[in-house]
Design goal:
mainly alpha, 2 strands
Length: 169
C-alpha cells in the first residue's frame, strides 16, 4: 500500500498516490467537524447549567398556589434540553460508523484520539448527568410537596368531619 498518513493536533501529512482520491482529507475534515460539534455542545452545557441553577433559585423564591408545580416549566425545559442534546451528540458520534473501509476508519479513530474526542464526550456526559440529577431532584421535591399537600388536606377533612359530628350530635 502506497498510502501514508501522519496525524498531529495541528496538522496532517497525507501521502496518496492518486491525486484525485481525497477520502482521507474528507475523513480528517469530518473528524475535525465532529470535534467542533463536541466542543460546541460542551460550551452550550457550560452556559446552560448556571441558567438552570438561576431558574431553580427563582422558582424557590416564587410562591405558587399549586403546590409542587413551581418547577413544572423548568422541569419541562431541562428534560427537553437533555433529550435534544443527547440525541444530537449520539447522531454526531454514529455518523461515521457506517463506513466499510477499514483504512479510513482507522484514520478517523486515530484523528479522534489525537483530538481528544473521548475526553470532550466524557465532559458532555458528566454535564448531562448533572442536568439529569437536577431534574430528578426537582421532580422528587415537587412530588414531596404534592404529597404533603394531600396529607394536610386529608387531616383537614378528618378534623372537619370530627367538628361537624360534634356540633350535630
Amino acid at each position: 500500500m502506497d498510502d501514508f498518513v501522519v496525524l498531529s493536533w495541528e496538522g496532517a501529512l497525507v501521502v496518496e498516490p492518486d491525486a484525485d482520491d481525497e477520502d482521507v482529507e474528507y475523513v480528517l475534515e469530518f473528524a475535525n467537524a465532529q470535534l467542533l460539534e463536541l466542543r460546541f455542545f460542551d460550551a452550550l452545557l457550560d452556559d446552560e447549567l448556571p441558567r438552570v441553577y438561576d431558574r431553580m433559585a427563582l422558582a424557590r423564591r416564587t410562591p405558587s398556589l399549586l403546590l409542587g408545580r413551581r418547577y413544572r416549566p423548568l422541569l419541562a425545559d431541562v428534560q427537553t434540553f437533555v433529550a435534544d442534546t443527547t440525541e444530537i451528540v449520539e447522531r454526531v458520534e454514529n455518523a461515521f460508523k457506517v463506513t466499510e473501509d477499514v483504512y479510513l476508519a482507522r484514520i478517523y479513530l486515530a484523528a479522534l484520539e489525537i483530538f481528544r474526542g473521548a475526553a470532550w464526550r466524557r465532559g458532555i456526559d458528566r454535564k448531562l448527568a448533572i442536568l439529569r440529577d437536577t431534574y430528578g431532584m426537582l421532580n422528587a421535591e415537587s412530588q414531596a410537596a404534592r404529597g404533603e399537600a394531600l396529607e394536610v388536606a386529608i387531616v383537614l377533612l378528618i378534623v372537619s368531619e370530627i367538628v361537624l359530628t360534634l356540633f350535630h350530635a
